[in-house]
């Protein structure tokens, strides 16, 4: 079985400061990892993914994520937060053997204050 | 690319009525997913299809819920009879199995209120 944990319900940062949204995962094989963002009254939007290769993955809107196999983590990061980054963020994992279904975390609400 | 299209965007109806939610996936995508999102329970996978065939419906809460995918470009989620606790935002998503690393593409959801 695959699972994802986002240990923080809420993350607050000041505009211009770096941000980190945490995610840990559990899968039986090699993981496919994803980050999605949800703005109010919208569906989830894909940000970035890790499949294989470089542990630092770059995605949309200046976001990046660091894959750490030993810690089974895939934390989302951004060097300088913007107020417009305020949204709900979801981490998701898919097992290599499961071509369809992803398991989503409970989501982390990011608030960036001016 | 028109994205995943869901209708209606909002639905308000009375308890006991039948509710039908509709979804048009992205052309060429062979996976389709139905999710429900609430404050209390977060994002829940209800059912998903591959090539129009239901693969896993273990998330469907009870027999009042049913989903169909009669062809590659259309799916419905039906609730009959509806209850106030069914109030939620329902999302449809689609993805391609061309390679297993494809993300899901979500519609903007149907906000359902059962009075």
Q: Care to describe what's here?
A:
The complex is a heterodimer of chains A (114) and B (115). Chain A is mainly β and 114 residues long. Chain A has no helices and twelve strands. In chain A, the strands form three sheets. In chain A, strands 2, 5, 6, 10, 11 and 12 form a six-stranded mixed sheet that branches. In chain A, strands 3-9-8-7 form a four-stranded antiparallel sheet, with no helix packed on it. The model of chain A has no long low-confidence stretch (mean pLDDT 93). By secondary structure, chain B is mainly β. In chain B, 0% of the residues lie in helices and 54% in strands. Chain B has strands at 5-7, 10-13, 19-24, 31-38, 42-50, 53-56, 65-71, 74-79, 88-95, 105-106, 110-114. In chain B, the strands form two sheets. In chain B, strands 2, 4, 5, 6, 9, 10 and 11 form a seven-stranded mixed sheet that branches. In chain B, strands 1-3-8-7 form a four-stranded antiparallel sheet, with no helix packed on it. In chain B, β7 (65-71) and β8 form a beta hairpin. Chain B starts with a strand and ends with a strand.
Name the features.
heterodimer, A: about 110 residues, mainly beta, six-stranded mixed β-sheet, four-stranded antiparallel β-sheet, B: about 120 residues, seven-stranded mixed β-sheet, 11 strands, about 55% strand, globular
- Residue runs with pLDDT of under 50 for 5 or more positions of chain B: none
Largest interface: which pair? A-B, 22 and 24 residues
Number of helices of chain B: 0
For the sheet with most strands of chain A, the description reads:
6 strands, mixed
Radius of gyration of chain A: 13 Å
Mean pLDDT of chain B: 94
Oligomer description: heterodimer
Structural class of chain B comes to: mainly beta
Main sheet attributes: strand count, strand direction, barrel closure of chain B: 7 strands, mixed
Classify the secondary structure makeup of chain A into a structural class.
Answer: mainly beta
Instruction: Kindly state the number of beta strands of chain B.
Output: 11
- Coarse morphology of chain B: globular
